[in-house]
Amino acid sequence: MAAARKDLLKKVYNMVPPMLESFHKGQLGRVGVIGGSEDYTGAPYFSAMASAKLGCDMSHVICEPGAAAVIKTYSPNLMVHPIMRQSKNAGASETASSISAQVVDMLSRLHVIVIGPGLGRDELMQDTCAQVVAEARRQGVPFVLDADGLFLAQTRPELVDGCKECILTPNVVEFARLAKAKGLDVNDGEPADLCAKLSKAFGGVTIIQKGPADYISNGEHTLVSDGEGGLKRSGGQGDTLTGTLATLLAYRKAYHDGIWDHDGSMSRSETLALAAYGGSAITRECSRLAFLDKGRALQASDLTEHVHTAFLNTVGERKETPQL
Ligand SMILES: NC(=O)C1=CN([C@@H]2O[C@H](COP(=O)(O)OP(=O)(O)OC[C@H]3O[C@@H](n4cnc5c(N)ncnc54)[C@H](O)[C@@H]3O)[C@@H](O)[C@H]2O)[C@@H](O)CC1
Ligand SMILES: Nc1ncnc2c1ncn2[C@@H]1O[C@H](COP(=O)(O)OP(=O)(O)OP(=O)(O)O)[C@@H](O)[C@H]1O
Ligand SMILES: [Mg+2]
User: Fold this and answer.
1) What is the pLDDT of residues 257-312, one digit of tens each?
2) Concatenated DSSP letters for 152-165?
3) Contact 23, 259 (CB under 8 A)
4) Cβ distance 76 to 48 under 8 Å?
């Protein structure tokens, strides 16, 4: 393991809470994934499940009623809330304000939200999420924008400009769309510099540009996460990333809230970068393990099954936790 990677993962370890008998339900993470629509039920499931498998106590999915009925059949462990509405299914009194108000009601019980997996680009879904993002930001609830959630950053950049409590996770194509929205030329420079430029253009928002290597930048500092992954590029692997990021952001909150004894020496900006790096490293390791297991047959759900081992192989279990 290269020295820089080892060093970074050791710091991620320091941010991960031990598992103590004194903790109560919810202290190790309450995550909400907003997405899931008529067309896509897998994406929010993979995201929420990855968060749970990384150790989050409570993983919620907030989605359309049609998607909710389906997602509930995938796993009884997830809490699924049929709050969101696509325009064509909305009643006369259901507006972005009335729907987002129900999601906002849940915010005080959530540590982190992920917006976008399987969300779609329907106008009412997008408007609802825009209002949720604005309120999450006001309340200081960290959020991850991915997939159709990135369409918000592309079309309404003011929602995220300058936000220091969020992570954007574009793939190559989504990165190019965001760059275009900010007037940047993706052919002008090395990937690490481009990621830093885009982050700066968003006022220092943390960006993970996914690809053969993941570039992570807040405009000031750029990390490269290039651990070996698998060779199958099936859809849905990005959802394991957003779920792992969500749990690490919940752990980050636990770290800053001081729910266990530690020296508290890491700043919020450092721990945000560590959550981003840790999520990327764990996801790539999941992909590597799943590919070893399944080869060409690998599907997104195979990553889900390797989240725990990937955590043990990269970050490692806390020494205080009894080893199984
Ligand atoms: N099982 C599921 O429910 C899944 C749902 N998904 C959802 O599907 C919706 C649309 O997501 P898409 O990712 O298709 O987004 P887009 O509809 O924006 O399409 C992006 C396109 O870029 C292509 N692409 C991706 N990486 C590339 C690269 N490195 N080089 C060149 N082309 C590349 C893809 O093949 C895709 O055609 C989202 O809501 C997403 O969450 C996907 O995450 C896949 C799995
Ligand atoms: N060429 C590659 N080599 C190794 N890992 C990769 C490669 N491309 C992507 N990844 C990894 O796969 C994960 C998902 O990235 P990807 O670019 O597939 O996202 P995505 O297109 O948004 O996925 P999704 O289908 O879930 O929407 C990331 O953790 C990334 O590090
Ligand atoms: Mg994606």
Assistant:
1) 999 999 999 999 999 999 999 999 999 999 999 999 999 999 999 999 999 999 99
2) HHHH-GGGTTT-SS
3) yes
4) no
How much is the ipTM here?
Answer: 0.96
Q: What would the DSSP string read from start to end of 45-61?
A: HHHHHHHHHTT-SEEEE
Q: Check: CB of residue 152 under 8 Å from CB of residue 133.
A: yes
* d(CA 56, ligand 1 centre) in Å: 26
Q: Structure pTM? A: 0.97
129 lines ligand 1 (CB under 6 A): no
Burial per residue of 236-259, b for 16 or more beta-carbon CB atoms within 10 angstroms, e otherwise:
bbbbbbbbbbbbbbbbbbbbeeeb
3, 304 contact by CB (below 8 A): no
Domains of the chain (ranges, CATH numbers): 1-18+25-315 (3.40.1190.20)
Instruction: Calculate how far, in angstroms, residue 150's C-alpha sits from the geometric centre of ligand 1.
Output: 12
Residues 6+ apart with CB under 8 A from 96: 124, 127, 128, 130, 131
Pocket of ligand 2 from Cβ distances under 6 Å: 147, 171, 210-212, 214, 229, 233, 235-239, 241, 280, 283-284, 287
